[in-house]
Amino acid sequence: MYQQILVAFDDTPEGMRAFTTALELAKGHATRIHLLSVIEGLAQTAGETIGEVEDAFAHAQKHLEWIQQPALERARREGIEAVSYIVPRRLSEAVIDLADSHKIDLIVLGSLGRSRMLGLFVEQGYEIAKHAKCSVLIAR
Questions:
Q1: Which end of the chain has the least Cβ crowding within 10 Å, N or C?
Q2: In what order do the strands lie in the sheet with 4-8?
Q3: CATH code for the domain of 84
Q4: Model's pTM, two decimal places?
């Protein structure tokens, strides 16, 4: 089975479905789940000053830590090792880099995620599937 599963995680039903799918695959195996959340597009949405961008980043990071915490606790209750990452990058780049650096066996994505825009999901999902050196599962 899989030893290292990377989950692209956010606070959407699709993100939770991806996490739940990874948990089910990890049960009964010596599997580590890597929970990845990204902060995208801060420079475009936060304002023009460095202080505004830094404030927006800190707020986004705190929010993502808050939504990751229950997932990490759930994995630990179920006896599954879980680690989390929050990075300020484009989703596809962050997933590929983390998958390569941690020898990930499986990448699990939600069907849409935070963007809620089908075109953006298809584009980034395609990039991940194209460049990943492991299997990619889209949880529905």
A1: C
A2: 81-87, 32-38, 4-8, 106-110, 135-139
A3: 3.40.50.620
A4: 0.87
Distance of alpha carbon 23 from alpha carbon 48, whole angstroms: 40
Q: Give the count of beta carbons closer than 10 Å to the beta carbon of residue 65.
A: 13
Joined tokens for residue 24: 């089910």
State which amino acid sits at residue 110.
G
pLDDT tens string for the chain (140 positions)? 899 999 999 888 888 999 999 999 999 999 999 999 998 776 555 456 778 878 888 999 999 999 999 999 999 999 999 999 999 988 899 999 999 999 999 999 987 655 443 334 456 778 898 899 999 998 88
* Distance separating alpha carbons of residues 47 and 25, to the nearest angstrom: 41
Longest CA–CA span in the chain (Å) reads 49
Cα–Cα separations (whole angstroms), residue 29 to 22, 67, 78: 12, 25, 11
Domain interval for residue 11: 4-139
- Residues 10-48, buried b or exposed e (16+ Cβ, 10 A)? bebebbbbbbebbbebbeeeebbbbbbbbbbebeeebee
Task: Name the domain count of the chain.
Answer: 1
